[in-house]
Design brief:
The protein is an all-alpha fold and 281 residues long. The protein is built from twelve helices and no strands.
Length: 281
């Protein structure tokens, strides 16, 4: 019996080989190259022929402009995350506690926009905020290029990432706990604060991380919706690699490494709070 179990494990290990190769090619090797570029003296082009380690780019990576952009990213992400919680938790709660047979269809409708190209959705929203309401509905609403528009679109785009893990966690709660709480004389509000909310906390934590991280590191939303008026750290990284030239690759690589460390730390926190990955999408 034990030998059969060991043979099954050995056989299934072979199926992991393609994944390991894929992981090495598209994750490990690029990460190593990023570290090499970050701490090198490459200034005219990427070349490892005359490679020399250098640390003077660290000062440029933590310039006032980058620090301001990083703080703005944290602020925007915090506001967006709070907005997603305030909207997403009630939606997930109502759908989960409803007695409708098609509540999973409602969740499917919530995540359906995620299947559409993000850039296309941003272009449509930017058109709506650029005067469409005023020209069609005679409503004076032209908020494109403003901070409010960027935060609003962030909430719209990342709201499903908050709803799904909360809904998943709410579905795992034993409904008999609510009946027991009511039998003990607890009000619906007390049942929510003492039973529902604590048991759904893992879903909230997962949702916070899954909303906060892409908000803090993305560049498409502030670039398209902000019209160049709003710049977050993702926009600076994109500029370093796309239009900054080889002399800016080092700075962009260092800033990217800081973001990667933050992401890895957040994922580590998720696996600590939810080792089985029950609330992850």
């Amino acid at each position: 019996m034990i030998q059969a179990s060991k043979s099954n494990v050995t056989r299934f290990k072979k199926f992991a080989i393609p994944y390991i190769v894929w992981l090495a090619i598209f994750v490990v090797i690029p990460l190593v190259l990023l570290i090499i570029v970050a701490f090198s003296s490459m200034e005219k082009s990427i070349s490892f022929v005359n490679y020399r380690p250098a640390l003077y780019h660290i000062k440029d990576a933590f310039s006032n402009a980058n620090c301001d952009a990083f703080l703005n990213s944290l602020l925007y992400s915090l506001i967006t995350t709070v907005g997603c919680i305030l909207i997403g938790y009630p939606v997930a709660y109502i759908v989960s506690m409803s007695k409708l047979k098609n509540k999973y269809l409602m969740i499917l409708l919530i995540i359906f926009p995620m299947w559409i190209c993000m850039v296309l959705r941003l272009k449509i929203l930017n058109y709506m905020f650029s005067g469409m309401f005023e020209s069609v509905l005679r409503i004076p609403l032209n908020i494109s290029g403003t901070t409010g528009a960027v935060i609003l679109v962030m909430v719209i785009m990342y709201l499903p990432f908050m709803i799904l893990p909360i809904f998943t966690q709410l579905e795992k709660i034993d409904r008999s706990l609510f009946e027991a709480s009511a039998d003990l004389g607890a009000t619906p509000v007390k049942t929510f604060t003492k039973v529902t909310l604590p048991l759904s906390l893992k879903g909230i934590i997962s949702g916070i991380i899954m909303v906060f991280l892409p908000c803090a590191t993305g560049f498409a939303i502030p670039q398209i919706i902000g019209n160049g008026n709003v710049e977050l750290i993702g926009n600076y990284i994109e500029r370093y690699f796309v239009s900054g030239g080889a002399s800016q690759y080092n700075v962009g690589a260092i800033v990217s490494l800081v973001i990667i460390v933050a992401v890895i730390g957040s994922l580590f926190f998720i696996f600590k709070t939810d080792p089985e990955g029950d609330t992850l999408i």
